[in-house]
Write the C-alpha cells for this entry.
Amino acid sequence: DCSTIKDGFFSDSSRMFCIGEVSPEAADLVRVTKEAVQVGLDAIKPWGHLGDIGAAVNAYAREHGYTVVREFGGHGIGLEVHEIPDVSATNQTVAQPGMIFSIEPGTGPILVPGLCFTIEPMINAGAQEIDMTDPNGWTVRTADRSLTAQWEVQLVITEDGYELLSW
C-alpha cells in the first residue's frame, strides 16, 4: 500500500504480489481480489450510486466462495488520504456523519463528476472477521488465520465514466 502527496493532494494505491511458489489457493485469492476491483470499476456510471460498486465487488467475492472484510475498504481521497465517503464492499449498512447507506445497488452517495475515491476490497478465504490485537498497532490478521488479499485503485468520476489515477 503506497501513498504520495503532491501539491497538497494525496494518492493511494496497493498491490498484491506472489513471491516464489505459492499455493493454488493463494494465487486464486489474489487473482479474484484484483478481478473484484475491475468488477467494481465496471459498475461505475456517472450519476449512479456508490452502492452499485460495493454490491458488485461483494457479489463477485461471494460467487468465488470468499468474504469481504468489514473494517477496511475504499475511501474518498483528496486533501487528506482518508476522506468520506467510505467505499464499502460488505453486506452491511454503512453509517457516516449525515448519511446512512448500504451496498445495495441504487443506494448511497451519487457518483458525481469530480468525486475522487479508492476501491479497496480486502477479501478473505475464510470468515470476514479480523484480529487487530497485535501489540505493534499495525498488523491485521484474519481471525481464523485464513488467507487474505487486498488491491486498491484510485479514480475520479468524469462526465462519461471514470479516470484511473492509479492502478
